[in-house]
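Query protein
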Amino acid sequence: MQLYQAKEEAERFVELIRERTGLLNEQGQDCYGFVHKTFQEYLCAEEIDYQADNEGDFEIVLDSIREHLHESHWREVLLLLIAQQKPKKVARAMRVIWDRGSEYESWLHRDLLFAGNCLTEDPKGLRSVDSDLVQEILERLVELEVSSEELLGKKVREQVYQIFCSFYETDFEAQVLEMLKERADWIDEERLLEYRAELGEKEEVIAILLARLKDENYHVRWRATLALCNFGNSSEAIVNSLLPLLQDENYHVRWSAALVLSNFGNSSETIVKSLLPLLQDEYFIVRWSAAKALDNFGNSSETVVNSLLPLLQDESSVVRGGAAKALGNLGNSYETVVNSLLPLLQDEYFIVRGSAAKALDNLGNSSETVANYLLPLLQDENSDVRRRAALALGNLGNSSETVVNSLLSLLQDDNSDVRWRAALALGNLGNSSETVVNSLLSLLQDDNSDVRWRAAEALGNLGNSSETVVNSLLSLLQDDNSDVRWRAAEALGKLGNSSETVVNSLLSLLQDDNSNMRGRVAEALGKLGKNSSNMLPTIIQWIQQHQDSEYVGRGIDALWYLVVGEEN
């Protein structure tokens, strides 16, 4: 095959992989990368192994290990490379790691931890070839496990935990579990239970925890309850064991039981009825956990709603905020619910004010009363409250002059999150007055990219296609942020201005380095073409001129949007 033919075949293959499988993305001119690095890591490992086999020199593999052992982006490559070797070569490779003597090894234990990770890859036959090495690695890991965190350090201890848990369903699982059990006196009891659950004894651990739910010591019951959240499930046996704990004499047990039940997602009538009395518990943490559980269950019955309403006046700000959040998520927009939430917009705690604003947003009540309560929050001292109030007003659709003017003032807010949410709200309200448009135009030059693209999006939604708006959006097509560029392109598509300048500017972006950007531009061109008889021949001409380019597909996409339609 001639060189030019091979090049063309390679280009066709790359294009096929990129377009049809999604494995590759473009990262510059004639430069591609794997979307998922696992493919790249696997192929790199294969290449090293191939060279070693082809030259009959295993030192090539060992040299790669020596050179790149603790380089983060080589980690998976080396693990894959070692795991695919035959037992004797695995042993040789792991001996190189074991004897490496990396810098600070006595403190960081990086060689040992990497060797442990190699074992979790489950290399077959290693024990029969070098059982001493396996035993020594595991013994050293166990020694780290039984060491004090104060002496070992949190990071190393976390790595040890992850390695031991990763031995599940490997040839070393039983050996590891037995070694850990032998040192039970030196390992925290709950941590050992975690290891047992991870290494094949989950049912035994659950049985132990269920028995502890009946222990006389409340601390034992409480910790067992919390542990079930990690090990358990919503089986009838577990749920039935937890339900009585909702009436436990100790409040730690009551709130933990409520939270665990809510995490299981079992929202049976029995569980809901058992939770309702906790909304009147003397301890705020219990009331809050019950409200959170009912929130998670999504039960919006009148009984549940009426039980949550009194919590909006609870003495605890945590409970008030939690109840507001729950009522907003449950979606029951009775007048009683809305009227009960309104006073919370003036609560002394910003978390409560923010939760109430978000709840009213979720409920969708756009009355003038709700808007008037939300308006003062646009000047709240807390930025989170300001942004939530802005979003609520934008979503509720009240576009009165007062609301619009109040949102306009937020476009100058010191907090960028507040500025872009105010821009989003104004775009949603649909007020395209000159004042609103000019204020949004100024944000197209904001230092924050999120603000710029939200302002562009708002302008597109408002539909003002004046020359000033179009020219300002055109300038954003050169922005250094790809999100800003494609939002500007999208806005231009919505505005329907199909002038030669707009079309040519968009066509040039079909060559953008960002594939997402190219797709958005194609869509924008398709939308513009619906209102222009000149668009079809222009796009066809562009495709003909670029038919040998790697990005011609986006021009074809534009033609598709124009001829076939977006939904097909």
Observations:
- The chain is about 70% helix and 0% strand.
- The mean pLDDT is 89.
- The longest strand covers residues 24-26.
